[in-house]
Write a structure and sequence with these properties.
TIM Barrel; 6-stranded parallel sheet; 9 helices; 50% helix; globular
Length: 216
């Protein structure tokens, strides 16, 4: 109701792997060793947990779409802790289930993750409409790897706004040049906004991106 058609409403949820990490570890961790150990040691227990979390997130996301969400973003913040083989075996089947379940809704879906340059092709194969990139991979390279038939989101380093406007503007311009005006790019930070970021600088960044995109 507050958006009143002026902006898209983004619904979101945690991805099953990231939720499982929080449930098992109880807090953020560097390696998520306890969660990974369970995943590797007890694959049947892990599959049962992922089933339960996936079913819950599908219901949750469908409710958000019914309530007016225009876009859905699934956050897998900690999946970068996995190798490609572990991701393919212990995460990918459940991510595919989520995106497949939402396809009929018509709401575009975004797969968000960080530290996943080694997993991009696998993440794309889960079936989201867009893949989010962090700043650890060039946008043009990442887009090539996931396929230009898919949208891309990203990927300004969230520390740049802390370094001032000139650094932020230079980074944003470089990303837009890599996107080359190709349809399907959503400009965004590569992760969340840093707590000490100046909101006025972010507003300036949004205005700059709109201006540059209008020239493309």
């Amino acid at each position: 109701e507050l958006a009143d058609g002026r902006a898209a409403v983004i619904g979101f949820c945690g991805a099953p792997f990231t939720l499982a990490c929080y449930l098992i570890e109880g807090r953020p961790s560097r390696e998520y060793a306890l969660a990974k150990a369970l995943m590797l040691r007890e694959p049947q227990t892990w599959a049962a947990l992922m089933d339960r979390l996936t079913e819950g997130m599908i219901v949750y996301l469908k409710a958000q779409i019914a309530a007016g969400a225009d876009v859905i973003q699934v956050f897998d913040s900690w999946v970068g802790a996995l190798s490609p083989d572990d991701y393919a075996r212990s995460v990918l089947p459940w991510m595919r289930r989520i995106f497949e379940a939402l396809r009929a809704s018509g709401a575009p879906t975004i797969a968000f993750s960080t530290g996943t340059a080694s997993l991009l092709e696998l993440i794309a194969s889960a079936g989201s409409d867009l893949v989010s990139l962090d700043w650890r991979v060039r946008l043009d390279e990442g887009w090539r790897r996931v396929g230009h038939d898919r949208g891309i989101q990203g990927n300004l380093d969230p520390v740049r706004p802390l370094a001032g406007w000139e650094v932020t503007q230079a980074g944003a311009r470089d990303i837009l040049e890599q996107a080359a005006g190709r349809p399907g790019h959503i400009f965004n930070l590569g992760h969340g906004v840093m707590p000490d970021t100046d909101p006025a600088l972010l507003k300036r960044l949004v205005d700059f991106v709109h201006l540059e995109a209008g020239r493309a």
